[in-house]
Amino acid sequence: MHPGPRIPLLSAVSDALAARTSSPPNEVRRARVLLVDDVPANLLALEGILEPLGQQLVSVRSGDEALKALLLDEYACVLMDVQMPGLDGLETAKLVRSRERTKHLPILFITALSRETAYITRGYETGAVDFLLKPVDPDILRAKVSVFVELYLRGEQLRQQALELAERRRVEDELLRAAELEQQLVGIVGHDIRSPLAAILTTASLQLAREALPEGQRKAFERVVRGGERIQRIVDQLLDFTRARLGGGIPVVPRPGDLNELCCKVADELRAARPDRAIVCEFTRDSLPGTWDLDRLAQVLANLLDNALKYSPGDSQVRIRTSEQGEHTVHVEVHNGGAPIPPHVRSTLFQPLRRGVDTDGRESLGLGLYIAHSIVEAHGGTLRVESTLEAGTTFFLCLPRQALGDARRLSACAEAARPESLTA
């Protein structure tokens, strides 16, 4: 079979570069093989033998042209005649080996045993990896070249994967540094806001304490206090978010307390704020003592109850129930009726910055449940939710009896059987 027209050196290199940049990513790459011989008939014969390999063959007729070709592109291997006018094969190989870029390029010499045996030793000294004796066996030549082509393509694949991995790591590092900087900034701003906010709240409170304050001014200062308290809650959430993300979790300070008393206290505070709503406490035991950070748990319970009030019908009850599960764990359930949480929301419910809209139209930060989940984890507990149209929505909170207990207590919460639901 005739090998077809030879590819001119410069146009072949240019075409290969264009193909590399424009070819689809999933297209199989081809290696380039450099053929060097001053006899055109020999080059045609080599092209005919190697064409079935499906690689890109570049033919040149001198050592000088070979050196120029190696400057323009990369090759899997070189097939080079030993005896050529000008730079012979040995001198060309020596120059190839002297360049950093091509010092490891495989060079296969083609020689005639009757005339060039003396070149073999010198050839290996100049970097040849093999000698092929004329007349060349086509099957042997294809087999040897195919090995170097395969090695080259595998090396290129590994290099590309290494570059992609390095780029991915660089992007991830930049994103991580940006996220840390953002969170540090949130923490700094949160701390800096506290001082002027405290001054505003103190001033407004002192004005409200005046008996002779006109009614219009009193309402204005009441609005200032309510707005300031809301800002304070937002600042506290931002600081807790920063601690959870940068400080290895929200810190807790456990002390002895009664979980039932804590639930009653939080429920009473919410009843005072929402006198139109019914909050029912159900306890399976008169007291439920343990060691927890009561202030942090109050934050969790207030968030769960507040959400239950927001996302349930105004004429329905919100219920909180506590129970003892074995010697080492306690459970809390917060239940409300109404529409269930959509599945796409439920899957990211405890992730930060998932913004929602309150029933009164105010936009939330989307940090409340994330912080609650972080506080529960800091105690060694678990927090999960179930929500259906028939049963309503129930948050299940499992806590070790002693906060930050040993691994056995931690696993007791993680593996605890599902508590009996209020809606069962």
TrEMBL record:
Keywords: Kinase, Phosphoprotein, Transferase. InterPro entries: CheY-like_superfamily, HATPase_C_sf, HATPase_dom, His_kinase_dom, HisK_dim/P_dom, HisK_dim/P_sf, Sig_transdc_His_kin-like_C, Sig_transdc_resp-reg_receiver. SMART domains: HATPase_c (SM00387), HisKA (SM00388), REC (SM00448). Residues 32-149 form the Response regulatory domain. It is an enzyme of class 2 (transferase). Residues 188-403 form the Histidine kinase domain. The modification 4-aspartylphosphate is found at residue 81. Its EC number is 2.7.13.3. GO terms for molecular function: kinase activity. Coiled coil: none annotated. CDD domains: HATPase, HisKA. It catalyses: ATP + protein L-histidine = ADP + protein N-phospho-L-histidine. This is histidine kinase. It comes from Corallococcus soli.
